[in-house]
Batch of 4 targets.
Target 1
Amino acid sequence: MKKNLYTLLLAVVFTAFNAQDLGKITIRTANTTIPKFIASLNGVRLNNEYVPNITFNYLDDYSYRVKLLLSGSSTVLNYTLSSEPKYLSKYVVTKDNFGNYNIILESKSLMLDEEVAPQTTPSVPTNTVQPVATPKVGVTPASTEVGVKTVPTTTYAPPTGGMSGTVTAVTNTITAMTAQDFNDRCDAVKKESFDDDKLKRAKQVFDEEYFTTGQVITVVKLFSFDDKKLAFAKYAYNKTLDKKNYYKVNDALTFTRSKNELSEYVKKQPK
C-alpha cells in the first residue's frame, strides 16, 4: 500500500513539474497583401474570426499539425510546425511568385527572456483557456447561442517552489461555423457534379467543423439522391451542437424509408 502511494505521489510531482515546461507558437501574415486567416492547431481553433496573427500557448510537444483557412478561399492549407517547451516559435505566412502560400520559421527564442521579474510574493499562474465570443445565431433554453457548446476540461497549475501542483477546472467553447465559413464550404461542395464526389468533398471541407441543425439541412439539400443525403445526415449528427432539433433533418429526406433509418440511427447514438 505504501509503495502504491509513493508511486502516485511521484507521478503527481512529475506532472506538476513538467507543467512549467510549456512552449508557444505565433503565426502572422508577412504583409497586408496576405489575406487574414483562421487557424487550428491539432484540430483546436481559438476563434471563428479572420485575423492577421494568432498565438497558441501552453504547448508541450515538438510537432503540431496546423490548418489555415485564408479569407476569401475555401481551400484549407495544411502544415506541420515545430515547437519546443520553454521556447517561443514565430512563424510567418508568405506568398511566392507563383501564388503559393507557405509558412516559414521567423525566429525561435527562450521564453525566459520574456518573463516579468518575480514579485516579492510570487503568484501562482494557472493554465487556462479563455472562452471565445462568437456571433449569435439563435436562442435555446440551455444557452444564449445556438451552435455553442461548453466542454469542461482540467488543467494543472504550475507550482511555485513547491512539490505539487493544483488542479483547476476550466472550460473550452465549441462553436458552429460563421455564415461566411459555412457558405464558402457549401460553394466548394456545389462545384462537384456527382453525389459521390459531393459527399467526399463535404466530408473534407467540414472535417473539423461543428454544425447547427439548420446548417446540416442546407448541406443535405445539396445532394440529389436520398442515399447520399442520408449518408451525410448520419456523418453530421455527432458534429451537431443542437441535437434536440435534429428531427428537422428528416424533412430534408425524400423517402419514408430514409427518414426512418435516420431516426433509428439517432436513437442509437450516445446522448
Note: The mean pLDDT is 78.
Target 2
Amino acid sequence: MSFFKSPSFKYLKNLLIGLGASVVMIGALGKLNSTPWGGTWITAGLMVEAFLFAMLGILGPDKDYYWEKLYPGLDKYKSHIAPLTEGETSADHRGLNADIVENKLGGMLSELQSMSKSLGSLKALQEVDFSKTGDQLKTMNNFYNRMNEAMNSLNASVEDTKQYQAQMASLSKNLTSLNGVYGNILTAYNVKA
C-alpha cells in the first residue's frame, strides 16, 4: 500500500491519465476524419482510460492537507514526527505550544478588527453621493472667474484713484496759486481805489 502513496506513483498515475486522454483525442480526430487508424487509436485510448478510472475508483482520493509545510518531513511516508504538544521537533524547528499559538491568534484577531474598521470607513466613503460634485466645481470655477474679474476691475479703479489723487493735488496747487494771484489783484485794486 505504501507504493500507492509514494510521489512516484502519483506522478505515474497523472502521466498515464494524460497520455491516455491524448490517445483518445487523437483517435477521435482520426475517427472524425475517417482515417483507417482512428478506430484503433480511440479503442486503445479508451481502454487505458477505463483501466485508470477503475484504479482511481478502487484506490480512492488522496488527502491534500499540506501539513508538510508546518512540519518538514511529514510528506515522507515513514517519518516519525513528535506530536504538536511535545515542543521541539528537531534542532532547527520549534514545536507549537499553546502560548505561542494564542499570542499569534490574538495578534491576528487585532489585525482583523483593525481591517474591519478600515473597511467600515471605506464603505462610508463609498456611500457618499458625488453625483453633484461636477456642478459644484463648475459653480466654484464660475465664482473664481468672477472674483478675478472683480479684482482686475478693482486694480484698475485703484490706478484711476491714484491718478485722480494726483490730479486733485495738482488742482489744489493751481487753486492755491490762483487764489494768490486773485489776492494780489484785489490788493492792487484796493490800493488804486
Note: Confidence is low (pLDDT under 50) at residues 89-93.
Target 3
Amino acid sequence: MKVKNILVSQPEPQHEKSPYFTLANKYKLNIDFRPFIQVDRVSLKEFRQQRINFLDFTAVILTSRTAVDNYFSIAKDLRLSIPTTMRYFCMSESIAYYLQTYIVYRKRKIFYGNGKIEDLLPAMKKFEKDKYILPVSDKHKQDISRFLRKNKLSFKKAVLYKTIAADLTDMDLSKYDTLLFFSPSGVRSLMKNFPDFKQEDTLIGAFGPSTAKAVKEEGLRLDIKAPLVNAPSMTMALEDYIKKQAKAKKAKV
C-alpha cells in the first residue's frame, strides 16, 4: 500500500522546520493537517460545581499549553489573582516558556521536565508540603494521578476543559491513503463524523498505546505504530514504513 496523500489529525505545525515538511519534501508527499478534536473550556458553573478554589493550592502541574490557557482563563473570569508565590511544574520546557504569556518568568518558581511526570519528582520532593492542583480534560489518563499518589504528594484534579469531536463532515476522506491519529478521541471523532467509513486500503497510524487500542476497538486495522524504539516519533515511524514498502517493492522486481 503506497503512501502519497496523508491526513494528520492535528493542527498544522507553525515551524517551517517541522519533520512533517521535511518528510514531505524528501518523499514527494502531500500532507494535510486537520484537528479531529476541539477543546472547549468548562463554564464557570461547571467549574464551581467541583468545589475547587485555586487559592487553596500552592503549586500547579501543567501538562500542556491547553492546560495553561484554561487555568488562567478561569482564574481571570473568577477575578482571582494568582499569587506570585505559586509554583509551576511543567511537563516540558516549551510549556514552561509558554507561561510567559501570563506571568513573569522566574526560575525559582518554574520547574520543567522532558515530557514525563517522573522528571519533576526531584523538584517536587523539595516542596513536599505543597498542595498541587492538576488541570485536566474531562477525558484524561490516570497515570499522573497514580504517580502523585504513589509518591504521597497532596493534589486535586480540576476538570477545566472538555475534548469533543470536531465537525469534519466537509472533508473528503477518499483523497487520502493514510490517516494519522494521536489520541483515542481523534479515532472516535473519525467514526462519529463518518459512521460508514470503510478502511479497505487506507493506512492508519496511531501514536501511543491508548490510541492504538482505540483503533482496534473500532474494528480498524493498525498499519503504522509509534512510538517504537527505532521510531520514537510519528514522522519517524511513517518514514520507516515508507522505506520498508520501497524495499519490498524493489525485492519483487
Note: The domain at 40-163 is CATH 3.40.50.10090 (Rossmann fold).
Target 4
Amino acid sequence: MKLGLNLVRVRPDRIPALAARAEALGYESVFVPDHVVVPVAFDSRYPGTSDGSFPYGGDVPLFDPLVVLAMVAQATTRIRLGTAIYLLPLRHPLVTARTIATLDVLSGGRVILGVGVGWLAEELEALGIDPASRVGRAEEASVALRRLWTETEPSFEGRHFSFAPVHFEPKPLTRPHPPILFGGDSDAALRRALRFGDGWISGGVATTVAEVAALVGRLGELRSTMGEQGEPGAAAVGGDRAGARGADRFEITVLFADPSPDDLDRLVSLGVDRVVAMPWDRSSAAPAAIERFGEAAAAVDGVEIGR
C-alpha cells in the first residue's frame, strides 16, 4: 500500500519544500484540492462533515491545483502529483485534457487525476453551469479525456460536450493515460467510479477503518451486481483483485487524516492501494509530522515508504 499526503492545510509557499522532503522520505504522492470560487452565501451542504458545514470558511484562499502541482513538479523528480479532487464539471474537457497532459509531460508522467462531480451548486451557477448537469458533464468529460489522450484524431458527441475531430498533441507520458479516480461515497458515486474510473478516491476524509471497510465492501458488492446485470464496470475491487493486472486493476485511494500503525495494517488487509494522510493541524507542523508518520508507517508490513 502506497502513502500519499493531503496538502489541503499547507500554505502554497511551503508546499514545494514539504513535497521534496516527502519524496526523500519515500512517500509516493501528494494531493491538492480544487475550487474556483466559494460564494459568499450558499445553501449547499458539504458532504465531508456530519452537519454539512464547510470546514474551511468562505474566505479560504484558493489556488489552482494544477499550477500548484506544476510548482511541486519543479521541486521534485519522482513523487506523484494528485488532485483530491478536481471538479470535472467546471471545465470543458478540451481544457482539462490540455492542462493535465501538459502537467504530465512536464513532470515526466506523474499525474493522478482524482475527480468529482462537485457539491457546491452555487459555484457551478457562478460559472454559468446548471448544477443539475454536473453528473452528466463529469461522465462525458471522463470519456472525452480518454479519447483526447489516446486517439490519433479524437472527436466526441454528447449532450453536454461535442467537438469534431481534432489534433491533440502531445499525448500524456503516462500510458495509456493518467489514471482517473472518481470520488464520492454514495452508491451512485461508487457506481460512477466503477463505470467511468480507473479507480475510486474517497469523497471525504475518513476517521475510522470501519468507514473505509464499509465503502470497500460496498464497492465489491456493486461490482458483482453490475457484472451480473451486464453493466460495464471494474474487473476487480479491493481484496478481490488477486492476479489483476493492467486495465483490470481498479485502484482504491482513501483520504485518512492520521491513521495509526494498526489502522494502516487493517487498511492493507482491506486491499486499499493508497492512503493519503494529513497528520498535522497547521502548516508549520507538517515537516515534523511527515517524519514521525513516515517512520511509524515504515514498520507496518505491506506499506511502501522509504523502501
Note: The CA atoms of residues 136 and 159 lie 8 Å apart.
